[in-house]
Amino acid sequence: MAHGNPVSGGREPAALGPSDFRKIQSMAREVFGLELKCGKEALVSARLSRRVRDLGLYDIAGYLHAVRADRTGIELARLIDALTTNFTCFLREPQHFELLHRQILPELAEGGSFQVWSAGCSTGEEPYSILFQAIEAMGESRSRAMKLLATDISTRALEAAQAGVYSESRLKELPVGWPAKYFQRGTGQSSGLVRVRPEWRSRLSFERLNLMQDFRHVPLCSVIFCRNVMIYFDKPTQERLVQRFTERLEPGGWLLIGHSEGLMGIRHELNYVKPAVYRKPAAGR
Ligand SMILES: C[S@@+](CC[C@H](N)C(=O)[O-])C[C@H]1O[C@@H](n2cnc3c(N)ncnc32)[C@H](O)[C@@H]1O
């Protein structure tokens, strides 16, 4: 990767100026569809200065040049990591998991195999919660009808999701009985950590995927979870993304978004079911 403008003589990276912030804003919009609002300068500066320093650079211009020159895409993924949050937890927004248990999975269980996609899965708590909920609702053997794809743009988050290792304290969000059923406890150096049992980890497929890029290779889905991801995008980007999700949904398929998000003010062809829950009209309607 190109490392222009190396730090010399211990010089500290310069703070972010207004024109640097505009450059980052326009790159974030162009590449990730990310809307970086004014007022975030200090946060962005703090997060990126560290990365600029680690790379041995001393200004943002050199850093952005390095990001564009890195053909592996790794630096780009690190940039989005610095600009967004990976915050997530097990059974986050429990209303969605109740709906999954009570209505969505029983309906889907009547048919053959079906696809669920966790788009923007972060460190994996969301797709594992979907899997555990499906096993509880359908039983282990029938839950195998569900194919579960978990994607994220962040390589770091995706690696954590694939490893399935969490601090034991994260499991307090789970119902009694789930921790022992779905996790192994670490011992020795790993004490205080838990790991999703291999037989459950192997039920998920993971893929690094930037939602701004083509995803027509994703199989048609019965349910798409895209929660707390679109919050970062501007309205036109959200609108295009929802249209592209709609194309990837089966007729009657569900789109679940974060409860602090909404499709207000964007054109779409989905039916509103309840807050943060939308459904593609069934065929012929
Ligand atoms: C706050 S987390 C949400 C995780 C989970 N869906 C939840 O609701 O708990 C947002 C995730 O979206 C991912 N993300 C942001 N922009 C993205 C993009 N353009 N393509 C794919 N993933 C993206 C981030 O890497 C991050 O892991």
Any idea what the CATH architecture of the largest domain is? 3-Layer(aba) Sandwich
The run of helices and strands is HHHHHEHEHEHEEHEEHEEE
- Please identify the structural class as seen in this structure: alpha/beta
**Which residue ranges are poorly predicted, with pLDDT under 50 across at least 5 consecutive positions?**
1-9
Biggest sheet architecture: 7 strands, mixed
The strand count comes to 10
- CATH third-tier fold name of the largest domain: Rossmann fold
Mean pLDDT across the residues is 91
Q: Please, what is the CATH homologous superfamily of the largest domain?
A: Vaccinia Virus protein VP39
Tell me which ligands are bound. S-adenosylmethionine
**Which value, in Å, is the CA radius of gyration?**
21 Å
What is the class of the largest domain in the CATH system? Alpha Beta
- Per DSSP, the total helix count is 10
Spatial strand order of the main sheet: 6-2-1-7-8-10-9
Distance between the termini: 53 Å
The portion of residues forming beta strands comes to 15-25%
Integer count of domains: 2
